[in-house]
Amino acid sequence: MSQLKLEIRQLIIDALGLEDLSPDDIVADQPLFGEGLGLDSVDALELGLAIQKRFGIKIDADAKDTRTHFASVDSLAAYIHANRAVA
């Protein structure tokens, strides 16, 4: 799953235009929003679309557990891994 986490880190950088960061700058268990990486709700939408395009997984923005999936690279990797296996 470490390769998946690296892909997610690079996807965050590419999708959100964070050219000042490298994948190593994004800690896997660091919060992506607020005090962590500092992403906002617009970033979440853009990241959700990028995940859908890259991994073929649709993330329901209205689902109550979506915020949990977007908490960190670790949680996104677990969600993508589980849903890719089902697909």
Automatic annotation (TrEMBL):
Q: Which Pfam families match?
A: PP-binding
**Cross-referenced Gene3D superfamilies, in alphabetical order?**
ACP-like
Q: Which domain of life is it from?
A: Bacteria
Q: Which residues form a coiled coil?
A: none
Annotated Carrier domain residues: 2-84
Under PROSITE patterns, the record lists: CARRIER
This protein's name: Phosphopantetheine-binding protein
